[in-house]
Amino acid sequence: DIQMTQSPASLSASLGETVTIECRASEDIYNGLAWYQQKPGKSPQLLIYNANSLHTGVPSRFSGSGSGTQYSLKINSLQSEDVASYFCQQYYDYPYTFGAGTKLELK
Amino acid sequence: EVKLVESGGGLVQPGRSLKLSCAASGFSFNDYWMGWVRQAPGKGLEWIGEINQDSSTINYTPSLKDKFTISRDNAQNTLYLQMSKLGSEDTAIYYCAREVSYIYVGYFDYWGQGVMVTVSS
User: Fold this and answer.
1) Hey, of B45, B63, B94, which one would you mutate to test binding to chain A, going by the most A CBs within 10 A of its CB?
2) In 3D, which of B76, B96, B74 has the Cα closest to residue B9?
3) Quick one: pLDDT band at residue B104, thresholds 50, 70, 90?
């Protein structure tokens, strides 16, 4: 199985700040990566697919980048509604696997 | 509006079986792959498996392949997850999700609200 190592596990940031979350795959996943946001008590919501494509309706302050085994999610100008957990998922190979998640809180 | 509504969860005794349903609306159900993902309390996400449009291809995570069965009824716009030999490790919120799937691609663009399954005596 492809292991997805996500960092940091938790993150505290101020409103307006830029935050970056990283995901490292145990082997090359050729941009087969999605990012999801999960607010407390809610289901996950797709943010980014194919490593850098923004899902419909997702604010442009979210962006994804990376290649090979290293990927990142960047949130520009952090808003209060961005408080959530974030998960990466690789879908290059079966079984699909997720990162352990990053919990983002406001400072 | 895409809507996915899971049902059938609850408290079940160890070793027993349970079948979850996911009612889909707001899109052409038989045009999409569908999948199941679960989340143990306070934990991360675990992919269970997926099914293609005509049920000819079903993939599972290896550790659950002999316990769980995914099926669908396109006439009823419903996805199913049959779970057997349940143990405490299966206690989780179970989500159904619509999948965008083609070669080397399989991400979930819409998710249901989830249904809780608790395995306990």
Assistant:
1) B45
2) B96
3) confident
